[in-house]
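Technical annex B. To support the medicinal chemistry partners, we prepared a structural model of the target in complex with magnesium ion, based solely on the information shown next.
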Amino acid sequence: MKIELTAVEKYYNRGAPNQVHALRTVDLSITSNETVCIHGPSGSGKSTLLAILGGIIGPTSGSAVVDGRKLARLPDRFLTLYRQQHIGFIFQRFRLIPELSVVENVTLPLLPLGIRPAERKRRGWDLLKRLEIGHRGDFLAAEISGGELQRAAVARALINDPSIIVADEPTAHLDTRLSEDFLSIMAELKDLGKTIIIASHDPLVSGNPIVDRCLYLRDGRLTAVPGPQ
Ligand SMILES: Nc1ncnc2c1ncn2[C@@H]1O[C@H](COP(=O)(O)OP(=O)(O)O)[C@@H](O)[C@H]1O
Ligand SMILES: [Mg+2]
């Protein structure tokens, strides 16, 4: 699915004393099956950009068009539907619910889609097995290791078979081996034709062969190459 951002501006608390101009005239075009890395210092707007791409928040102005649909024009319930059907979001700290089992966490995004419990379970277990954590499905999320949590977070992002995977600093809390594991899962997804957008300042990510293109954000402005430090 093609993603096109045009003149995107994002303000938080616009007009208030604590106003933040988080994105400034961002133009970005991402084609299907492209893997793009977005790097930039903390506070540069990476998470904001991903949240817009993932349909979690809307831009203040400008347009975000995905697969020919203008996201900002969609009423909230359609935006939610868009997210549920097309986006797999991997959050920085994984955000699994510690009190739920791994398979319950992974199948959570299917709940609002009205899929029967037996089918939800089947899909959840299939995916956990594919990601080699089938043996942890019945464990509580609070009880599994960091590497397993990461795989569970990836499974949750993939449960709705999204065409676009958005990952926000996915390796920030992982050691080198787990980061490489994560990247090899992304490589498989790329082979399946997914569009992948990763915000990261980890050189393991930006220098990885799966990455087609790296973009640099600084103070909410996007450039193709790092600007002067
Ligand atoms: N929900 C929010 N409300 C107000 N300001 C925010 C919010 N989210 C992010 N910001 C601000 O927007 C700027 C960009 O933040 P963010 O997109 O999280 O950057 P990054 O992910 O690169 O660290 C920062 O100045 C941050 O403090
Ligand atoms: Mg961030």
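Notes passed to the chemistry partners:
The beta strands are 3-12, 20-30, 35-39, 61-66, 69-70, 87-90, 164-168, 195-199, 213-218, 221-223.
The chain has a mean pLDDT of 91.
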